Amino acid sequence: MMSINQSDQILLKSYLSGDEAAFEILIRKHKDKVFAFILSKIKNYNLAHDLFQDTFIKVVNSLKRGKYNEEGKFVPWVMRIAHNLVIDHFRRQKKTRSIAPTDDFNIFDVISNEEKNVEEEMIDDQITSDLRKLIEELPEDQKEVLKMRYYKDLSFKEISEITDVSINTALGRMRYAIINLRKLVEKHNVQLQIN
Question: Is residue 164 scored above 60 in pLDDT?
């Protein structure tokens, strides 16, 4: 007979072998933590309850498709699913900003420094994370200039001295970095949100 005192791995193994009761124990064991996390972000009991149910529906579907293989990390995996569903919820609530095909568009304008509520901070964290991943796909010289300009706040004169190229070359690399970043955003279908 399965009990709440058994490890998540044993309960999962039992569930995957056909014991539905083992999964009910897993939910009972972790529901307070998962629900509290969702409620802390959503601030609406009924909506948090819906997202809590959606989380475990997604967990069941992922388990049945064999998508779980993180031995001993069941709770962080469930929390990540909950976190992603919360972000998806807020993204649906926000209007998507389309990327204008003009040279004066600055992809970093979507991340403002105004005071933000929890959901805006979560969305901005996701946008920042998505952008950092896309930046890593840029050619090395473009990535270098972009990082120096936006993360180290260096002037183009300073960048040209550090990289030993002319200011025009540094500006050109920056321009191509933004153009290529825009293409990567479209290619990967990354959603950029505004407040």
Answer: yes
Q: CA-to-CA distance for 160 and 167, rounded, in angstroms?
A: 5
User: Which residues form the domain of 123?
Assistant: 107-187
Distance of alpha carbon 124 from alpha carbon 107, whole angstroms: 13
- Who contacts 42 (Cβ-Cβ below 8 Å, separation ≥6)? 48, 51, 86, 89
Q: How many residues does the chain have?
A: 195
Instruction: State yes or no: pLDDT of 103 exceeds 80.
Output: no
| Domain end residue (candidates: 30, 64, 93) | 93
Task: Check whether residue 20 and residue 84 sit in a common domain.
Answer: yes
- Least Cα distance to 126 among 158, 89, 169, 71 occurs for 89
Query: Could you tell me the sign of the dihedral formed by the alpha carbons of 101, 105, 107, 110, in that order?
Result: negative
Q: Which residues contact 91 (CB under 8 A, 6 or more apart)?
A: 123, 191, 193
Instruction: Please spell the DSSP secondary structure of 24-60, one letter per residue.
Output: HHHHHHHHHHHHHHHHHHH--HHHHHHHHHHHHHHHH
Please indicate, yes or no, whether residues 19 and 69 belong to a single structural domain of this protein.
yes
Give per-residue pLDDT as tens, 114-155: 455 676 677 777 777 788 888 889 999 999 988 888 778 888
Q: Determine the angle formed by the axes of helices 118-135 and 20-42, rounding to 10 degrees.
A: 100
Closest CA relative to residue 12, chosen from 27, 32, 1, 31 = 27
